Amino acid sequence: MIRNSFKLLATLMLSAAALGAQADTYPSRPIKVISPFPAGGATDVLTRVLAERMAKNLGQSMIVENKAGAGTSIGAAYVSRENPDGYTILMATNSTLVTNRYLYKELPYDPDSFVRIGMVGIGPLVLLSSPKRPFNSTQDVVAYAKQNPGKLTFATFGPGTSSHLAGELFKSRAGIDILHVPFKGATQALPALISGDVDLFFDMVATGMPQADAGKVKVFAITSPTRLATQPNVSTLAEQGYPSFDMTAWFSFVAPKGTPAPVVERLQAALTETLQDEAVKKRLLDMGIDPRSGTAAELDKQIKTEQPIVSQLIKQANIVLQ
């Protein structure tokens, strides 16, 4: 009995020593950062901005690889199968960690199987209208929709995306019936809005506001609880009579389940330091993303807050993907 206790204690001490040694030498080779989006898109650009600065903090290069498709599921599944040693991490969004669990009948990964490194930022959406429509405010849109149920259309990035969910939440809160028209991203949806093929579009700030500033589309509201610092003149939907309206895209870093705690802590420290860098903050704000704390606690809170809202919206709108 005593001999077994000594063996157990020795094993625990050796394990602790091994973890300590791993933390001391980590990272000793380049780290892969998986971006589950196509190269050149807004989220991919964000990933590369953060990876470049984090690499300086870690003293090791970070290589971004794109594994896009299936609402981030392809990239997420890839990372979930990787060795949990801290050398492969994932840029995870609300689709990865919240929406997909309710959207797909089957997922190739478990959204709860990742170690949470930290929250990166929140990207609100803006409600845009076609310039070919006579609307000059959200109130105009709602009034027309109530008088003409099912006649207005809203474009989205695709089924189940943050853009789609924002539209469904707007329908629910405003008590209106508008028709969903899915596209494969803003590059397809914006031209359709400008030409008048669709009436409305909940778009990311980075792509939508330049079109609004150029007079090609109208902007009526923003979907975050508070106004974005770089767009102080765009009021929130909450301010316009839809209390607690909050539907945004958000971004985080996670690692495979089983990644040693000291390694995760090293990554967390590098992320927090990166998000405190003034140049990085400015770059994110210019992209329409509000930088966050970089902590796992904030990421946990965001996930828990959003799950019941998203679950209800998806059931209500009967959104199911194979």
Shape from CA axes?
globular
String of helices and strands? HEHEHEHEHEHEHEHEEHHEH
In whole angstroms, the N-to-C terminal distance is 54 Å
Count of helix runs? 11
Largest sheet: 10 strands, mixed
Model description:
This protein is globular. The protein is an alpha/beta fold. β5, α6 and β6 form a beta-alpha-beta unit. Helices cover 46% and strands 19% of the residues. Strands 1, 2, 3, 4, 5, 6, 7, 8, 9 and 10 form a 10-stranded mixed β-sheet that branches.
Short structural description:
The chain is α/β, with parallel strands linked by helices. Helices cover 46% and strands 19% of the residues. It starts with a helix and ends in a 5-residue tail after the last helix.
Topology summary:
Layout: H1 2-25, E1 31-35, H2 42-58, E2 62-66, H3 73-81, E3 88-93, H4 94-103, E4 114-129, H5 138-147, E5 153-156, H6 162-174, E6 179-182, H7 186-195, E7 200-204, H8 205-213, E8 218-222, E9 248-256, H9 261-275, H10 278-286, E10 290-291, H11 296-317
Parallel strand pairs: 1-2, 1-3, 5-6, 5-7
Antiparallel strand pairs: 3-9, 4-7, 4-8, 4-9, 4-10
